[in-house]
Amino acid sequence: MDENKYVLCRKFVLTLISAENLPNVRKLFKSEVFAKVSFGGDKKTERRTKVDKHGELNPAWNSIMKYTIGESGIIHYGLQLVIKFYCKRKLGDRYIGEIHTSIKELFDYANSRGGSAILSLPIKKGSAETGGVLSFSYKFGLPIWEEKPGFWKKVMLSGASILLQVVGQATLGVDVPISFYAETNIVDTDMLNEK
Questions:
Q1: Any idea what DSSP says for residue 115?
Q2: CA nearest 146: which of 190, 103, 80, 192?
Q3: Which of 104, 193, 111, 184 is nearest to 146 (CA)?
Q4: pLDDT by residue (tens digit) across 116-137?
Q5: Could you tell me where the DSSP H helices lie in the chain?
Q6: Phi and psi at residue 171, to the nearest 5°
Q7: Phi–psi pair at 57, nearest 5 degrees
Q8: How far apart are alpha carbons 22 and 162 in whole angstroms?
Q9: Largest CA distance in the chain
Q10: Rounded to 5 degrees, what are φ and ψ at 76?
Q11: Confidence class of residue 193 from pLDDT cuts 50, 70 and 90?
């Protein structure tokens, strides 16, 4: 196998189930909460849930996000899953808090349980816990080899991805995946968020 042409990866499926006891950052109107998911805070990997308009401080999304992650991002501690929570507002969304967790730690925990797990983690704002808790499930697939695209294919994929993202956001209100081949840690974000 030509390692210059292919990279060893695993599929990673993340389901944001719900959050509980979020702090109230909006005093006059009801809270409508959504989450943004990224790897290491990188905008190229960022995806978001729909806004929960009913649960207020206990939102439920059941939002499924699929990624392909390079094996190097799984076996080393550097790659972080970052999930940030916001309250939707017309005058600008208000930050609630976030969680950070290592992909390696998630993999090791799930691997001891057959490749998948359900976790509840505390949501923090800075170094302080907010009292809120996120419940999510995730699953890692078996190792697979993915072909790295050439330079011109990367350029074409980037252009097509940006166009699809703009059209998808404008017409469907969902984030369309952005291909991301700059690093071997994360190869691609797969498919649309499933409902």
A1: S
A2: 190
A3: 184
A4: 999 999 999 988 888 899 999 9
A5: 71-75, 103-111, 151-171
A6: -95, -40
A7: -85, 0
A8: 33
A9: 60
A10: -115, 160
A11: very low
pLDDT of residue 194: 41
Half-sphere exposure of 37 (CA within 13 A, CB side): 23
Cβ proximity of 141 and 11 under 8 Å: yes
- As given in the structure block, the two tokens for residue 51 are 């806004």
**What CATH number does domain 8-143 carry, 2.60.40.150, 3.90.320.10, 1.10.3210.10, 3.40.50.261?**
2.60.40.150
Q: What is the pLDDT of residue 72?
A: 86
Taking the domains of the chain in order of start, what are their residue ranges? Answer: 8-143
The per-residue pLDDT for range 40-76, each reduced to its tens digit, is 888 888 999 999 999 999 999 999 999 999 888 898 8
pTM of the model: 0.77
Distances (CA, A) of 119 to 14, 43, 51, 171: 11, 25, 22, 33
- DSSP letter at 45 equals G
Query: 3-state DSSP helix/strand/coil percent for the chain, to nearest 5?
Result: 20, 45, 35
**132 or 28, which is more confident?**
132
